[in-house]
Write a structure and sequence with these properties.
This protein is an alpha/beta fold and 595 residues long. It has 21 helices and 21 strands. The chain is globular.
Length: 595
């Protein structure tokens, strides 16, 4: 999308764009790539650098790419959404096209717009917004940045693309694989106007959208220490995870089995980002210190529109996750979502009049609820469930070197200030930590530091004390590592989250008599959403009698602790001491009193 402040400027850019595409040749494209290679700097866009390098190394493909560009970016593949009339009616056919850009039959690839795309318009497959700015009056103003931040937020909704015949409604890739991460990134292109960029980042922060500069960001090596590879723990030690068995389709006979409440009324917080303002509007100030709930009324048309808009609710996809479901209409009825017997409320500031909620906003509010339900169904569905039988996997086969990037953005923007998530690289030379480097956030760093302070006390009881970071990136080094997940087990839990997860850390403790493996999960955000993980970790301790081991002669103990949060608000370190030593660590009460 090319976004302008003035219609004349947008139309001029449209004409220039058509001219560039029409005159594009293999020779001009090759010359462009050569120029970019000569002036490359470390501050260049990593995404563009990857593309430039690929085509410089594969010049034989330039003829194909030129033909592709000319076909995909031809004038009949472009929508000009500008309209100078007061009626606001787009050219015939374009209105429908703008609201069906995600359709497989959609042929449009480029949109030129000023302010025609206001509230009610959204698209999941928008990956690039180019800001064309030549009006000094609007540079850096808060009205401009708020409106454009809301446009970015609208475009940043997750696109559930198909990969290996699977659709995901949550992020799949991490910062270690930039070529794949491009599929989960929206790029905003603009000239360097410091005040404008400062205001834009601030506006995006308010909307809880993580941002970062697209600069070159090399992969960093994280290696198992040679000193650890010389130990008996490396040579003969094991890490334990529970075995899984297949789940029958008959198990999924209600949404409660996915962890979804279908009896209580629904309460959805109002998010101002749903409402776009024009460039002339002042920024709306909302007071959330006093709020009230407003009941919303929806007829069936709203629900059908939302379910048609979200591809997850196409019946062929629903059936994959709800194998007993007979129709999409049945999904809405009492035995499943029970939507017609419950009231949907929106929580709004008292300074806001509920009557200003437009039909488009009501539709977006309903869509937020259905999107959350889709996410819960996807997370709650599993073809396998855990058992109480734990299998030992050789450490030397499953703990491996891996590569990872330090994110260019500050993930702390996705959490509260007291739970910072900024990721950095740290060198850890002490023998207790099995890797030479940790690429971690501040909550994880604090956890490592607090365990480090207590290693000497642990070594009074255990000859071997090792902290293992089981990073998801490590899984990509070996197909074996997808077994390293912990699952809920126990016959007493019929309605549980069956999805497995990999706790981030294992504290490995061994002496001459026994071995203890303690799972630890630091958490800086999404705590309520992922509470099931902590419940599983504490369940292990309370149900030891249900745990059996493949090797019945081994004296192994599997334990878990509560989430470690910033400044240990949940007492994970205290619990760690009680598990490992039978008491709290020395000096722990003094430390907590000092805080």
């Amino acid at each position: 999308m090319f976004k302008s402040q003035r219609i004349a400027a947008s139309n001029e850019a449209h004409e220039k764009f058509n001219e560039i595409i029409e005159n594009l040749t293999v020779e001009s494209l090759k010359a462009f790539l050569d120029r970019q290679g000569q002036i490359a700097t470390e501050d260049d866009s990593e995404t563009l650098t990857l593309a430039h390098d690929y085509y410089r190394e594969n010049e034989e493909k330039l003829a194909d790419i030129v033909r592709y560009i000319k076909r995909e970016l031809a004038p009949n593949r472009i929508i000009n959404a500008n309209d100078s009339s007061q009626s606001g009616i787009l050219e015939k056919g374009h209105y429908e096209a703008l609201n069906s850009l995600e359709s497989p039959t959609n042929l449009y690839r480029v949109i030129f717009a000023v302010a025609r795309l206001t509230e009610g318009w959204d698209v999941l497959n928008l990956f690039d917004i180019v800001r064309l700015s030549d009006d000094p009056k609007v540079r850096g103003t808060k009205a401009t940045t708020m409106s454009e931040a809301q446009l970015i937020g609208r475009g940043a909704r997750y696109y559930p693309f198909l990969l290996n015949d699977e659709r995901s409604f949550t992020r799949r890739f991490d910062d270690d694989s930039i070529d794949s991460l491009i599929l989960e990134t929206i790029h905003y292109h603009t000239i360097n106007e410091p005040q404008y960029l400062k205001n834009l980042v601030s506006a995006l922060d308010e909307m809880n959208l993580p941002t970062g500069e697209d600069k070159k960001n090399p992969l960093l090596d994280v290696k198992v220490k040679p000193s650890f590879k010389r130990t008996d723990v490396w040579k003969y030690g094991k890490v334990y995870y529970n075995e899984t068995i297949e789940v029958d389709d008959e198990y999924y006979d209600s949404l409660e089995k996915y962890g979804i409440d279908t009896q209580e009324d629904v309460i959805i917080p109002y998010i101002s980002a749903l409402k776009e303002v024009s460039y002339k509007d002042e920024q709306v100030q909302e007071d959330y210190t006093n709020v009230y709930n407003v009941a919303l009324t929806f007829d069936r048309r709203y629900i059908e529109k939302v379910m048609n808009r979200l591809s997850f609710y196409h019946f062929s996809n629903l059936k994959r996750y709800l194998p007993l479901l007979r129709s999409r209409e049945e999904f809405l009825e009492k035995n499943w979502l029970n939507i017609y017997n419950r009231t949907i409320y929106v929580t709004i500031p008292r300074t806001m009049d509920s009557s200003i909620l437009t039909p488009a906003e009501k539709l977006n509010i309903l869509e937020r609820y259905f999107s959350e339900v889709a996410k819960q169904i996807k997370a709650g569905y599993s073809k396998r469930r855990g058992t109480g039988k734990f299998i030992g996997y050789p450490i030397k086969e499953y703990i491996a070197n891996y590569r990872k990037r330090v994110p260019n953005y500050d993930t702390g923007r996705m959490s509260l200030l007291q739970d910072p998530q900024t990721v950095q690289r740290y060198e850890l030379k002490e023998d207790y930590y099995v890797y030479d480097t940790a690429i971690i956030n501040l909550t994880e760093k604090q956890l490592i530091d607090r365990i480090a302070e207590r290693v000497s006390e642990l070594k009074e009881v255990y000859e071997d004390v090792y902290l293992i970071r089981v990073d998801e990136n490590m899984h990509r080094e070996s197909a074996k590592n997808n077994k390293l997940k912990l699952h809920q087990f126990g016959s007493a839990h019929d309605e549980v989250n069956l999805a497995g997860f990999q706790p981030d850390f294992i504290l490995y403790l061994q002496n001459a008599d026994y071995f203890i493996q303690i799972f630890i999960e630091p958490k800086g955000r999404n705590i309520e959403e992922e509470q099931w993980k902590e419940d599983l970790l504490t369940y292990i301790n309370e149900n030891e009698a249900e745990i059996i081991f493949e090797d019945e002669t081994a004296d192994v103990r599997i334990k878990g602790v509560k989430f470690y949060t910033m400044n240990d608000g949940r007492g994970a370190i205290k619990q760690l001491g009680e598990i490992a030593l039978g008491r709290a660590f020395r000096g722990l009460s003094v430390e907590r009193n000092m805080r």
